[in-house]
User: Which sequence fits this backbone?
């Protein structure tokens, strides 16, 4: 210690430091930090579902939801890497993905989703489409399209995954999407089937992936619409 | 510290991790570990920021920013570069620096300790006396460049060793010692000028 700073060194060592303790702040911040960690844990668990929902959205443009129970409020989670908007229910069991052009006002969309959820729980909706994908005889997924009439008169179509079995791997799923968009495949004709009390006409197509997996896609629309 | 050292199979096989490293490793997934980490450092960081800003509300706000940022970016933390405590202090120092920068821009510097009925610890009289003594010193510290102010606060008020200040500021030992010496010389000049210290 050089002589010229001895005074200040001694002075600083003797300074009585003011203290500040706030139990209220300590507890509030503690809660916030732990909530944030819990939220991130849940987010990382849900990411598989987002991606799967986004894959379906790629195949069938429109709104896709992976359904849970006791949903309540919806929260906006932002966009994923592909620019798809993601909304998540309060219970974190339900994820809704929407394309960019389907969301003009996030707050309005959030409110719409909450209204739709109420209508869904009352089963106040109309089934207007059924899509099925079968891989080597096993059901990969079945997606229902429901139409909801909102209180302001607008209608909104929601695709809801009825069954997801993850038969295909990611590579196969990507190839499936490419085939779908290319419109390739062999036309297998149509058949009729009653789904949830409504008669649907299904158009079937078959295509074969590069690894030999046989895919049969069926798209059903109500017979009374035709 | 040796008693705290525990053999743990994380990272490279056979690496020895201390308590902080284990807590940090677990904290991203385990709220109990995160809570222990928070409880361990909350008072220390709040105290440091309070000594830097001398404003209770600002100290609480900046402390909130520090902990939220720390736990948000926990995965980015690599403990080979610096101990967790030093990393935390580095984030706190940056928060304080940003606060000072903003204060400079709006030309508002709070020199008065605020009232806070929620506080506890030393008696009200002791707190008032300490705050009064600190008020002039803090005002003098604000006259210094940020780099000098930071090393003085870390060394004298937070009791950090030179090596630890190096880890927090990311500066070499020679630089820290030089900054400390220059800072002290300038602070002494100011306090002498204000008749707080004898010539």
Assistant:
């Amino acid at each position: 210690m050089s002589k010229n700073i001895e005074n200040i060194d001694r002075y600083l060592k003797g300074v009585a430091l003011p203290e500040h303790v706030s139990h209220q702040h300590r507890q509030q911040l503690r809660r916030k930090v732990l909530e944030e960690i819990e939220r991130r844990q849940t987010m990382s668990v849900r990411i598989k579902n987002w991606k799967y929902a986004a894959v379906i959205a790629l195949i069938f443009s429109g709104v896709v939801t992976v359904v849970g129970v006791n949903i309540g409020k919806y929260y906006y989670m932002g966009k994923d890497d592909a620019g798809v908007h993601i909304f998540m229910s309060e219970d974190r069991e339900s994820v809704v993905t929407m394309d960019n052009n389907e969301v003009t006002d996030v707050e309005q969309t959030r409110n719409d989703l909450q209204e739709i959820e109420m209508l869904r729980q009352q089963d106040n909706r109309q089934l207007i489409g059924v899509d099925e994908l079968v891989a080597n005889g096993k059901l990969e997924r079945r997606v229902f399209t429901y139409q909801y009439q909102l209180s302001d008169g607008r209608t909104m179509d929601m695709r809801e995954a009825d069954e997801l079995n993850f038969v295909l791997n990611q590579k196969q799923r990507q190839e499936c999407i490419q085939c779908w968009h290319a419109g390739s495949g062999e036309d297998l004709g149509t058949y009729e089937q009653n789904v949830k009390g409504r008669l649907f006409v299904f158009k079937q197509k078959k295509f074969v992936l590069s690894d030999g997996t046989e895919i049969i896609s069926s798209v059903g629309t109500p017979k009374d619409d035709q | 510290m040796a008693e705290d050292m525990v053999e743990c199979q994380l990272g490279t096989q056979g690496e020895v991790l201390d308590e902080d490293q284990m807590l940090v490793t677990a904290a991203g997934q385990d709220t109990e570990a995160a809570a222990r980490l928070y409880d361990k450092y909350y008072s220390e960081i709040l105290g440091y920021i309070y000594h830097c800003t001398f404003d209770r509300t600002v100290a609480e706000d900046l402390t909130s920013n520090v902990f939220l940022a720390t736990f948000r970016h926990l995965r980015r933390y690599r403990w080979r570069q610096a101990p967790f405590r030093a990393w935390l202090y580095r984030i706190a120092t940056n928060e304080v620096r940003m606060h000072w920068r903003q204060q400079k821009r709006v030309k508002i510097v709070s020199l008065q300790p605020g009232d806070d009925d929620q506080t506890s610890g030393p008696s009200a009289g002791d707190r008032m006396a300490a705050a009064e003594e600190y008020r002039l010193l803090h005002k003098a510290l604000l006259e210094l460049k940020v780099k000098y102010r930071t090393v003085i606060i870390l060394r004298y008020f937070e009791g950090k060793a030179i090596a630890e200040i190096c880890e927090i500021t990311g500066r070499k030992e020679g630089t820290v010692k030089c900054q400390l010496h220059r800072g002290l010389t300038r602070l002494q000049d100011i306090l002498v000028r204000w008749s707080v210290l004898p010539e």
Helices of chain A lie at 6-14, 23-59, 106-121, 170-182. The first strand of chain A starts at residue 63 and ends at 66.
